[in-house]
Design goal:
This protein has about 300 residues and is α/β, with parallel strands linked by helices. It is about 25% helix and about 25% strand.
Length: about 300
């Protein structure tokens, strides 16, 4: 059975706290797993969340600040220790190649897995599979940073009333779906477009074109909200978003489910992030993330 869910491994910005690990996030998309921004402690958080090294097919790093990448060394060595039988592809900013190399070979270990390096140098599509297209967009941060967006291809939804009107049923429905035509009846005559699901992952950034492009029409948007709105100047200076800014992006983009994460340790009350997001006018489903949370991708419209 296909599973589409987002597993939160860590939610802290810059430094871990007693209740929040460094960043780390896994997207389960049907039979694949995409690990985003493995910070320190990710390997242990995977264990706690029931995520195995065998679950990983891609690793996507937004940028090379430590809270988003220091866990790479352990994760890479773990997939080799466990002898993951399939290829694992790593995406990361090409400008940080020297950091990736250092983390990949931080200590001695036996390489048993094909780890393919696929660095990102510009906006564009990184991979296309039957299940999704993965693309990257440049963000605005003191070091080069990219956000990631996953889009499922559009499909067709069969309409029972139209099928009945044309006298089509049973095995003929499947034949029509496969071949696109049954006699004089086309697939378009008895179906409508079923919009593919959309997911985006936006970490450290100021407001910029890339943020809006990644968020547009998302069913599930995971986005940093390091600061509260009263510290907007501080957020801009350090290349971050506030809760209200992140929520306004989601509001304008028509996001269905918004997940806020990457919180500064300066704020003791996580509920304030939700209050400010609602004050910004976001009316969809809203989650203030905590470690080991599991968020299902919303069902298709």
């Amino acid at each position: 059975m296909s599973v589409r869910e987002f597993v939160v491994l860590g939610t802290a910005s810059q430094v871990p706290t007693r209740h929040r690990n460094h960043n780390g996030y896994l997207l389960r998309w049907d039979g694949e797993g995409i690990l985003f921004d493995p910070g320190e402690g990710t390997q242990r958080q995977m264990l706690r969340a029931g995520v195995a090294a065998h679950d990983l097919n891609r690793i996507c790093v937004t940028h090379f600040h430590g809270d988003h990448s220091l866990g790479l060394a352990g994760v890479i060595q773990r997939i080799n220790l466990d002898q993951v039988p399939h290829e694992v592809t790593a995406h990361y900013p090409r400008s940080g190649q020297r950091f990736f190399d250092r983390l990949r070979y931080a200590t001695a270990y036996r390489e048993t897995v094909r780890l393919t390096e696929a660095p990102v140098a510009a906006d564009g599509i990184l991979a296309a599979t039957p299940s999704y297209t993965l693309e990257a967009r440049k963000l605005s941060h003191p070091v080069e940073s990219y956000g990631y967006r996953l889009t499922e291809p559009d499909g067709r939804r069969m309409l029972p009333g139209r099928l009945a009107a044309h006298g089509i049923g049973g095995p003929d429905v499947g034949r029509l779906q496969r071949e696109g035509r049954l006699g004089d009846v086309t697939l378009e005559d008895v179906s409508e477009v079923r919009r593919g699901q959309r997911f985006a992952f936006v970490m450290d950034t100021r407001l910029c074109d890339g943020v809006h492009a990644l968020a547009e029409g998302c069913d599930l948007l995971v986005i940093e909200s390091t600061f509260l709105d009263e510290d907007a100047a501080l957020a801009a200076d350090h290349g971050h978003l506030t809760a209200g800014q992140a929520a306004a992006v989601a509001r304008d983009a028509g996001v269905r489910h918004l997940v806020l994460t990457h919180f500064s340790q300066r704020y003791p009350d996580p509920e304030e992030f939700e209050r400010q997001a609602r004050a910004a006018g976001f009316e969809g489903e809203l989650t203030v993330a905590y470690d080991l949370l599991r968020v299902p991708v919303p069902k298709r419209r």
